[in-house]
Amino acid sequence: MPSGNRAAQFAPFAALDGYQEIIEETARATEPRRELAEDAQSILDARLALLKACQDELPQVEIEHFVSDAVKSGGHYVRTAGRLTKIVPDGRRLFLEDGTAIPIADIVALEGRILDKLDTMK
Questions:
Q1: Cα separations (Å) of 70 from 25, 27, 58, 79, 93?
Q2: Beta strands of the chain (E only): which ranges?
């Protein structure tokens, strides 16, 4: 028997196809959606209102928001940065210059130089 065939006899064997993928998926962590406290929601609402008023300036913003997991319950929080092009209150979405659409209900934090105006008005 050629040595290549002999070596194949000792190759790793997966008795259950897909079992390793199931184990990895089960081990993958997600986190639950956080509910904002009333005062944090008020701050976020004020920041959204300022951004809505200044959206024609295409302000640079950084947004922390929740992204639901496609497979498991929960999801994870990500930070997305870009230039704001519009806020659609009826559609409850915020759009960035690169085409990214973020649901307003998923936003937990907004940052940007234009929002510093709001902080200095307090």
A1: 12, 15, 31, 18, 20
A2: 60-68, 75-88, 93-96, 101-103, 107-111
Q: Which two tokens stand for residue 35?
A: 């509910």
pLDDT tens track for 22-62: 787 777 788 999 999 999 999 999 999 999 998 899 999 99
Residue 31 near residue 76 (C-beta atoms within 8 A)? yes
Name the amino acid, one letter, at 114: I
Handedness of CA 100, 113, 39, 73 (dihedral sign): positive
Phi first, then psi, for residue 42 (nearest 5°) are: -65, -40
Is the pLDDT higher at 101 or at 11? 101
Give the type of residue at 14. A
Q: What is the C-alpha to C-alpha distance for residues 15 and 43, in angstroms, rounded to an integer?
A: 55
Domain spans in the chain, listed from the N-terminal domain onward: 32-121
